[in-house]
Amino acid sequence: MSPSSALSARAQQHATRAAFFIPGFATAIWAVLVPFAKSRTGVDDGTLGLILLCLGAGSLLAMPLAGTLAARFGCRRVMALATAVICASLPLLALGESPWLLGAALFVFGAGIGAMDCTMNMQAVVVERESGRAMMSGFHAFFSIGGFVGSAAMTLLLWTQWGPVAAALAGTLAICAVAVASARLWRAERTSQGGPLLAWPRGVVLFIGVLAFVVFLAEGAMLDWSAVFLSDVRQVEPSSAGVGYVVFALTMTVARLLGDAVVERLGRLRSILLGAMLACAGFLVLTWVTPWQASLAGYLLLGLGCANIVPALFSLAGNQRHMTPAIAITAVSTLGYAGVLAGPALIGLAAQGIGLPAAFIGVAILLGGVALSTRWLKV
User: Fold this and answer.
1) Which of 37, 63, 69 is nearest to 52 (CA)?
2) d(CA 70, CA 192)
3) Does residue 352 have a pLDDT over 50?
4) Other CB atoms within 10 Å distance of the CB of residue 155
5) Which of 47, 70, 275, 319 fits as disulfide partner to 78, beta carbons 3.0 to 4.6 Å?
6) Do 128 and 236 form a contact (C-beta atoms < 8 A)?
7) Assign residue 134 a region: left if phi > 0, alpha if psi is -120 to 50, beta otherwise?
């Protein structure tokens, strides 16, 4: 590889990391805003769960459309459009006083997040393949870096008496700056597909998709319910309740930055097993340990556990032989993100009936199932 080619490859790798940073940063801003949105709209846990369903619905519906558009027009145009949708809808999440308006804004916001998530993974597969080395966990680390920076910045701004609207606008401007700096290096060529872009997963691909569903559900629980848990269950002030997600996001960031080396040493299946066990323990610590400062250890365990499961599952989907890798990745992504669609609503409805701590224990049981399932996960 010539020096100019190597420089171009590194620039594209950095631009891909920036693409992963954007949705992580944006969703973390929303995670910190959830208690304010709940108070502003005056809804209970069950209704909030249904409203949060709109975010997942927008993401799930946008993903296959984004894949089709990326195949036809290239990743760059789709990611630029997705970023514009995110920036247009994010401030509305801090403004809507009606549950219906909040739900509509969340749907549009979720569509932008889902389109970005799908397309950036398509770009990451190409960039990783051209590099000749494992890079997927490192790319996903920048989603977590975005989550940490977004949640920390929002919590700091709110703690210093910035209002939710002003803080959300500041975050939107930051996203625009990152996109302007990196968009010219996003991949512009069309994505070659050997068959339909979206196909119902079968065999081991379906198995991987189900595991992805559970892990995304757990991550969605942290995104949408971690601040509510500290605010409502542990009686932490709403302006400080984002600290749980900060711990989760920071831990996941560090674990994903080290993730490629860990996966190479342990193997993908052992990494999934260990991660699921740690995440299961994290939910149990979070719900059983008091005072709330000590229960933050649960957020740390959750960050360690969840960090490298999803990148490992994407790699397994790309290396299996039952379906074309590109189609398998799209199918697993869509089924996995269905966990984001169903998770917040299921947890909200469960919290309405049995309480939020018991709902979290239910997620811990599902993660225990992920750990046990690795004995049958063969690709």
Assistant:
1) 37
2) 10
3) yes
4) 22
5) 70
6) no
7) beta
CB 93 within 8 A of CB 33: yes
> CA nearest 136: which of 2, 282, 329?
329
Is there a cis peptide before residue 291, judged by omega within 30 degrees of 0? yes
**Nearest-angstrom CA–CA distance, 311 and 272:** 10
Q: Whole-prediction pTM value?
A: 0.76
List domains and CATH numbers for the chain. 3-376 (1.20.1250.20)
Of the candidate ranges 3-12, 124-133, 266-275, 360-369, the one whose mean pLDDT is the lowest: 3-12
First vs last C-alpha separation in the chain: 32
Structure token digits, residue 195? 């068959």
For 262, the token pair is: 């860990």
Residue 326: pLDDT over 80: no
Q: Residue 177: how many CB atoms within 10 A of its CB?
A: 10
What tokens were used for 116?
């970005």
Residue with tokens 């968009």, as numbered in its chain? 183
Is the CB of residue 299 less than 8 Å from the CB of residue 244? yes
CA neighbor of 338 nearest in space, from 115, 108, 23, 60: 60
How much of the chain exceeds pLDDT 90, in percent?
30
Angle value at C-alpha 311, between 308 and 313, nearest 5 degrees: 105
- Percent of the chain predicted with pLDDT > 70: 94
The most confident of the ranges 86-100, 218-232, 233-247, 311-325 is: 86-100
DSSP 218-248: HHHHHHHHHHHIIIIIS---GGGTTHHHHHH
Short-list 148, 87, 92, CA closest to 113: 87
- What does the block give as tokens for 291? 């005072």
More confident call, 87 vs 63: 87
Q: Cα separation of 150 and 167, whole Å?
A: 10
